[in-house]
Automatic annotation (TrEMBL):
GO molecular function annotations of the record: zinc ion transmembrane transporter activity
Compartments in which it is found: Membrane
Gene3D superfamilies given in the database record: Cation efflux protein transmembrane domain
One Gene Ontology cellular component annotation held by this UniProt entry: plasma membrane
Pfam family, one: ZT_dimer
UniProt keywords, alphabetically: Ion transport, Membrane, Transmembrane, Transmembrane helix, Transport
Membrane topology, as annotated: Multi-pass membrane protein
Protein name, per record: Cation diffusion facilitator family transporter
Length: 305
C-alpha cells in the first residue's frame, strides 16, 4: 500500500511568474550594455573590459535561458509523459551558465598572462564611460534579481552573475582610473586576473549545486540517516528501506520509502504521522510511502541502490 503527500509544484511556477518581469528587464538592460562593452573593449584594447563584456554575455544568455526555463516549467501537465514536468530545465540552465562563465574566466586569465610581457596601450576615456554605464546597469539587475535568488537555483545563477559583473564594472573603472592617472598599462591585465580568480570559486560552487541536483544526490542540508531514524520512530513502523531523498528542482524536495509496520498498526495513522514528520521536521512536501506488513519484507523487491 502506498500514499503520496505534498503540494503540487505550482508554487514554483507562481514564483516564476512573480520574477519573470524582473528577468525581462535585466535581460534588456544587460543586453544593451553587453554590446556597448564588447564594441568599446575592441576599440580601446582593454582586457578588463573585454572580460567584463564576456561575463555580461553569459549573463544575458543565462537570463534568456532562465526565461525559457520559466516558460517551459509553466507547461507542466500538458504532456502526460513528463510526470515531473520540466522543472529540471532550470537546473540545466544553471549548470550551462556555470560552464560558460568558467570558460570566459579561464580565457581572460590566459590572455592576461600573455599581456604581462608587453601590455598594449589602452584608451581609457571610452573605457571609463562604458564601465560607469555598466556599473549602473548591473546595480539595477542586482536589485531586480536578488529576491528570486533565495527561491530558485536558476535565478541564483543569474543573480551571482549580476553580482560578479557589478564587481567587474568597478574593476574596469579602477583600471581605467589607474591607467589614466599613472600611465601604468599593467593595471589592465592585473585587475583582469584578480577578477577572474575572484569569480571562479563562486562559479564552481554554482556548478556543483546544479550537478548535485542532476545526479539526484540528497540535499546537502538533509541527512538521510536522520530521515530514516525519524521514520522508524513513527509508531507502528518497525523498519525503513528503499529510502531515497532527492531534489527535483529549487524548493522541491522529494522522498520515497518502504515502511514495514506491525500487523496490528493502523495504516492510515502510520502514513499520516510519517508524512507530517517529513513535512514539519525536514520540509519535505512530496513523499511517496509504501507500507508493508512484517511478513512481506522478504518478498519486497528492494533495489540495491
Amino acid at each position: 500500500m502506498g500514499a503520496t503527500d505534498g503540494h503540487q509544484p505550482g508554487a514554483v511556477a507562481d514564483t516564476g511568474q512573480r520574477h519573470r518581469w524582473r528577468l525581462w528587464t535585466a535581460f534588456t538592460l544587460l543586453g544593451t550594455l553587453m554590446v556597448a562593452e564588447a564594441v568599446t573593449a575592441v576599440r580601446t584594447g582593454s582586457l578588463t573590459l573585454l572580460g567584463d563584456a564576456g561575463h555580461m554575455f553569459t549573463d544575458v544568455l543565462g537570463i534568456g535561458m532562465s526565461l525559457a526555463a520559466l516558460t517551459l516549467t509553466s507547461q507542466r501537465g500538458k504532456n502526460p509523459q513528463r510526470t515531473f514536468g520540466l522543472y529540471r530545465v532550470e537546473v540545466l540552465a544553471a549548470l550551462t551558465n556555470a560552464l560558460m562563465l568558467s570558460a570566459v574566466s579561464i580565457y581572460v586569465l590566459v590572455e592576461a598572462i600573455r599581456r604581462f610581457s608587453g601590455p598594449p596601450e589602452v584608451d581609457t576615456g571610452p573605457m571609463l564611460v562604458v564601465a560607469v554605464l555598466g556599473l549602473l546597469a548591473n546595480i539595477v539587475a542586482f536589485v531586480l534579481l536578488r529576491p528570486g535568488a533565495k527561491e530558485s537555483i536558476n535565478l541564483k545563477g543569474a543573480y551571482l552573475e549580476a553580482l560578479s559583473d557589478l564587481l567587474g564594472s568597478l574593476s574596469v573603472i579602477a583600471a581605467a582610473l589607474i591607467i589614466a592617472g599613472t600611465g601604468w598599462q599593467l593595471a589592465d591585465p592585473l585587475i583582469a586576473v584578480a577578477l577572474g580568480l575572484f569569480r571562479l570559486p563562486r562559479i564552481w560552487l554554482l556548478g556543483r549545486a546544479a550537478t548535485r541536483i542532476l545526479v539526484q544526490a540528497a540535499p546537502e542540508h538533509l541527512q538521510v540517516t536522520a530521515v530514516q531514524d525519524r521514520l522508524i520512530a513513527v509508531p507502528g513502523v518497525t523498519d525503513v528501506h528503499d529510502l531515497h531523498v532527492w531534489t527535483l528542482t529549487s524548493g522541491i524536495e522529494v522522498t520515497s520509502a518502504h515502511l514495514t509496520v506491525d500487523p496490528g498498526a493502523d495504516i492510515g495513522d502510520v502514513l499520516g504521522s510519517a508524512q507530517t514528520a517529513l513535512r514539519e521536521e525536514f520540509r519535505i512536501e512530496h513523499a511517496t510511502l509504501q507500507v508493508e506488513p512484517d511478513a512481506s519484507i522478504e518478498d519486497c523487491g528492494s533495489f540495491k541502490w
